[in-house]
Amino acid sequence: MRSPIVLLSLSVCLAAAALVGGCGSDNQAGGTPSTADATPGSIEIAAVLPAFEYYGACGNETVDVDGTIFYPVLPERMAEIDLARYPVEDAVATASGLLRVVAPGPGDDVGTMIVYIDGNARFQSDSGRVVWLTDEEQTYNWVC
Fold first, then answer.
1. Rounded distance between C-alpha atoms, residue 30 and residue 109, angstroms
2. Helix, strand or coil for residue 10?
3. Residue 125 burial by CB count (10 A; 0-12/13-18/19+): exposed, middle or buried?
4. What is the pTM of this model?
């Protein structure tokens, strides 16, 4: 099932095709989109790492991904990320909230890390928990 954003993009594209005779892609890199549902303006996927081990219990745990340190995105900066531009294979892009520190349950600390060419990354645990990360250093005002 396609997301409402993809369906809206498809509707806009069809309307544009009726008016100007076609729908093009603004993929300047000339490569093919990373997923079948990628929309114009999508951020290209640099790497998909299945069976990746990471557990962000407190929201301030960094992780090394192939030599690059990634920081969990601060909650107040999540609004700056246009989730519709980030293709995700078989997952819904949602941010997880932090309520308390708990030990990882089954599938919480292993999942798929998707690294994008713009320096952002998305980890989705096998249990469905999503953490957005960035290669820009973040300063957290809490200690876990």
1. 36
2. helix
3. buried
4. 0.64
